[in-house]
Each structure stands twice: as C-alpha cells, then as structure tokens.
C-alpha cells in the first residue's frame, strides 16, 4: 500500500528528560494505525509533534515520500492535511453547525458581507460527505458528544485532511455512538484517509485498527498486525516485564470498618455501589480514564449528592449531604486538581493549613497564637518547604502544594482521607514523601485511606487492597499482594470477571 | 536582611499608599497655606467618615470576590426609614437602630439574591441599586426629611473634647472593628478564602452561603451607619442622597490595593484610600477648581490605581 507518513528516529526531550527515544512509525493510505501505551509512554508527545504543537529534537518526518521540514507548527500541519481531533472539542458552542464549518472562510476571505446561502450549501455538502444527518442550522452546544465528534470530522474533511489523528475518541461516547464512529472510520479509510487512533481500550483498537504500534517509556516496543495479534500479548508488550514492585508491608486489615457504602446510587452511579474500608487500611481504587474514579470520591465526600443507599462511618450511619457535613464527620478529600479545588493559591501556607480545621470549629474568634503553634508543628511533620508560614501557596512546588493539602486534613483531624491522584505531576522524591505521609496517617487508630490512582504500579505499591472500577461500577476487589498489573488491566478492560 | 525587610515594608500596599498620601499633603500645603491647618485636616477626616465607613464594608465584599453597587441606594433607603421612625415616634434610639438594621436587611437581601437565586453579585446589587433607591423615594414621597433632633445632629456635628469630630471617632471605631473581624475571626478568614478559591473553600467544609450572606449583611449595616452620620451632618435626610457613592467606595477599596479578583486586600489600606480620595476633593476645592472636575479626577485616579497595581503584578 502507498505510504502516507513515515516517522524516522524521532526523539524529544523536556527539560533534559527524554520522552521519545528514536521512535519509528508509519501510516499507509486508507489505514487505521493504533497507538498504544500507558500514561507517560509518549503517545501524546508523538501526536503533538505531528500536529505541530511541539518541535522535535531529532529525526525525520516523511510525508507522501518527501521529507518535510520538521517544525511546521499547527497551521503547517493543517496545510499538509494532518488534522487532530482532541477530546475537548475546538468548536464554538454558540454558533451553528454551518457557521463552525465556515469559520475559516469567515476569517480568511476578504469582504464584509457573508454569503449565507453559500455557507449553508457548503455545510450541507460537507455533512453529506460524512453521511451523517446533522441539521446545519442547529447550535453546536445542543449537539450530543457524538455529533460534535462527527462535526469535527466533517470540519477535518473540509480542510482536505489526509491524516486524521483521534485522541481517545470514544471516551465520552455510548456503545451505540461508538459503533457509528467506527462506521465513519471505515468510510474514511475507504476514501484513502489515514487514521492514527489513540486509545486505552484494547477491544476497540482490535475492532477498528489495522496495525498497532506499542510505545513504552518513549520507545517503540513493537508494531503488530492487529488481525493476528493476541490481546494478552499486546498487554504484555505494553506493560513490559513485571517491575519488581517494592513491597511495602501489606496489612491484612481485619480492624473495624472506618467507612462503608451500602447500595449507594447517584447521578453518576446507576448501579449500586458497595464498598468498605477498614481501620489501618489503604484501599486503592484504580481504573481507566472515565471509569468514574473521581465521581466515586465526590460521592463519598458529599460533593455530588447521594440519591439512595446508606453510608456508615465508624459503624454509625451518617448522612453526607455536603462537603461541609463530610468535613464535620471526619472525612478529608484531596482533589485531583489541587490548584483549582484544593488550595487558596493567593493565601499563605498558614491560612491554607488551618482552613478545614477552622471550618469544623464553632468559635467566633481566631486564636492566632495557637494557630501559629499548630501550623508550625504541621509544617514540620509533613515537611513543607516554604520560606515561611505566610508565603503564598502559589509559589510552592507541586509536591509542597500537595503536602499543604495533606497537612490541612491532618490538622482537621480527619479519620478517613480520600486521595484523588495525589501524586499526579509530582516528582519522584516528593512522591515518596507523600507515600510516607499516607503510611504514617493510617498507623493511628480508627484511620483509613482511600487512594485513587490510574497508575497501577503506584496502586500496587501503596495499597493493601485494590478495587478496580470500570464503566461506573466496581468490577474487582483484590488483595494487593495476590494480584498483578496484568490482572488489574484485564479487570479494568473487562476482559475477565471476578467470580462471585 | 535589612534590605529585605525594607522591601517588604515598601511592597506593603498600605504603606506605599500612606507615602503617596503624605506626598499629596506636602504638595497641597505648598500650594495653599490654608491646607495644612488643624481645621482643614480635621475637616478631611470628617469628610472621609461617610465614604470610609461604606468602603470598609465594601472591602470585605470585594475580598470575598464580590462587589456591591447598591451601597448608595441602601444608604438612602435605610436613612429614610430611620427618619420616618424618628418623625413618628420621636424615639432616637429606635430611629438609629432602624436605620442601621434596615441597611443590614437590604444587604442580606443582596446576599440572598446571590446565594439562593444564584444571581451574580454585579447584577444582584445593580438591581438593588434601583430597588432601594425607589423605596427611598416612595417612602419619603420624594421629600427630604428635616427637623431632626439636636441629639441626632450631635452624631454628625458634635466634637469630643471640643476637638475631635464624632464622625471621625466612629470612622476609627468602624475600621478597628472591621480590621479585627477580618484578621481575628473565623468569619474574616473565610471571607478571604472564599474570594481566593470558592470551590476549594467549599471542599474544605466552609459554609459558603452563610458567609456570603453575612458579608453582604455587614456591608449593609455599615451603609446604615454612614447614612446616620451624613444626615446628622447635613441636618436633613435626603432620599436622593448617596448617589454615586458606589464609585467613591469601590474607588477607596481599589486605591487601597484590594484585588477585584478576591482573596487579597487590606482594610487599613482602604481607609488610606478613602482619605486620599477626600484629599483630592478637598485639594481641588481649595485650589478653586470647578467641583464638576472632581468626578473626572476621581474616576481617573481609580483607573490609574488599578493600572499601577497590574503593572506591579507583572514585574
């Protein structure tokens, strides 16, 4: 088949860290080539180089047999016919479908008046080309996610795309919508367009892709023909040899339950949730992107309302109807997005540390002297490196920021701590410190931690017990020492089921 | 080490504003021999009292990430109701209490619109600007109230120990109180936290709605206090009074360096900001500049203050 694109020995570093090491990749006309790898394997960097967002350090890009200048920029990528469809759409929500299709025209054409009949006619032709019924006059904000995606594809085609890159395109699609998308991809292939398909979902890749290239730690591991490859083999190649996971002492928790959910449902969880975490236990929760991990944390913390079901804390039934109630009952929450949801960035370390503690109090006045004492002790015990207690939190490193959020819940003396991706964006040294804090926390009586992470290595390292969540339900409950990465991935992709 | 401390003091907004104020006083005293007299300086503090007290409440509102455009209307409406109580009952304490509490109620109403009806502060208080002004005119039938009690007038015109005007004392007491609330109560801390990051505050267990309600209620109370002082000074309650005070109050807050994005600010700097505004007006008067120009200068100073602040942030 005719080659459309060839990447040869692509390398890229950020701040001295090599994220891509001599990566090779090629794409033929009318082929769907999947790109697979764990978080941090280098998939998104590779895509961003192709879409012109990043400049490569070394290597060659050969487009239709000709070597092209490697740093062409986003505009250059479009001119070549390389279009990327991201998860968050680049559409203008308050404009109509036709207007979105014609945006480029509006900006590039000279003249003052818009020729509306032409705009609508062209929109209809563009929509017909993808054979998808959307009313050209409907507002983009009223479209479903799937339709927005189709519109993005139509826009891509109207730009004469030859290569379409799709980054996790089914993350927000229903099963039926996914089918429609796959049909669409089939049509695109028939038109000779090359598709680069990035996804975590192996089943899908097998269904839609012709070949797959597996990246691991920024290196090519293999390129396989998907018709012949076995899923197990792909997973093995993706995760590599089992890393020797540093086995922390895993407790066989048989203490009293600290928190339990019984048949809990809410807007995000249609199927009932049941879980329990015991004294001195670190309960890990993992799953793919979009499986519902953060939604689960928010339900337990009262940030999303629980519709039916019961929640128990230290054996007593509680009603957690708001974060305020959760804090008062002794639950703490480190949100995934700590800058936007965990910290008051332009306030000091001191004010951030005592916020939840103060919210629990019933007094009117601040006891500044004992606050100072408390803050000093916490800064020391969680080892926050700040110039002083009044330094604004925004100037701290991400590790130190996270320690401030952690310290906030220590001061509030909570019993259950829910950590949502607590080490995301944190360097390895600070990561260890966070793990130590977690271990020290659960040593005390009546304390437990729920540790949410999509990094399976991390979950295996820190958790005593692991819940795997997939498509908004808990699909496996595993003892950390009896399981492995392969098994967890298979559960999270629903390739196997847990008996019982 | 010492230079670091000096830099810290200079970067303190309240201190740099104080330097600007002193510089202005110095220039004005060169320009007019009348300016730097005890009489005129005490006049400045007197003139600052009304706007300063309103601005004190506005500071907390802006620190919490909100804004109150309705201060001038609440000021007039609460004053009119208190005046009517005074006319009908001749009971001075009841009248004073009515003015202050009704100001508080109107402020709470702002808070209600914002927290329960989810109307953005700008719109909620813009609406209140119309509503409260309307009721001030309806209740008084558009006629100013005269014939106030001599005791009532003492609040605006009296002097303690024959030197210090009563409004000046009230001004200082209000600022001491608001400073204390801002820095020595949980409520004050929460006001800053909400302005800095409302979502993080809620996820830390703060009762966002209650705190917001109290902030606007407090702002309203202070409008009532300011209303009493002004009417006592002028010996009349004007249903049309206080119009444009939102410009002066918000101006004092931003000249004092409080961030309109919330979470940062200083009540004492607002006091200095209010004195700077009064000094400009007073200075222009003394120099014989047409009073209409005061609006222009005031507006310009507000824009300049924020522009300088933005520049400083970029450095």
Please describe the structure with a list of short key phrases separated by commas or semicolons.
heterodimer, A: 500 residues, alpha/beta, 6-stranded mixed beta sheet, 25% strand, B: 315 residues, mainly alpha, globular
Report on the structure:
The complex is a heterodimer of chains A (about 500) and B (about 325). With about 500 residues, chain A is of the alpha/beta class. Helix content of chain A is about 35%, strand content about 25%. Chain A has 17 helices and 20 strands. Chain A has helices at about 45-50, 75-80, 95-110, 115-130, 145-160, 175-190, 200-210, 230-240, 295-300, 325-330, 340, 350-360, 370-380, 400-410, 430-445, 455-460, 485-490, and strands at about 5-15, 15-30, 30-35, 60-65, 65-70, 80-85, 165, 195-200, 210-215, 220-225, 255-265, 275-280, 280-285, 305-315, 315-320, 330-335, 415-420, 450, 465-470, 475-480. In chain A, the strands form four sheets. In chain A, strands 6-7-8-3-9-10 form a six-stranded mixed sheet, sandwiched between helices. In chain A, strands 16-17-18-13-19-20 form a six-stranded mixed sheet, with helices on both faces. In chain A, strands 2-1-4-5 form a four-stranded antiparallel sheet, with no helix packed on it. In chain A, helix 3 (about 95-110) packs across helix 4, helix 12 runs parallel beside helix 14 (about 400-410) and helix 13 (about 370-380) crosses helix 14 (about 400-410). The longest helix of chain A is centred in the middle third of the chain and has 16 residues, at about 175-190. Chain A is globular and about 70 Å long. Chain B has about 325 residues and is an all-alpha fold. Chain B contains 14 helices and two strands; from the N terminus they run H-H-H-H-H-H-H-E-E-H-H-H-H-H-H-H. In chain B, strands 1-2 form a two-stranded antiparallel sheet. In chain B, strand 1 and strand 2 form a beta hairpin. In chain B, helix 4 (about 70-90) runs parallel beside helix 6. Chain B starts with a helix and ends with a helix. At the A-B interface, helix 10, helix 11 and helix 12 of A face helix 9 and helix 10 of B.
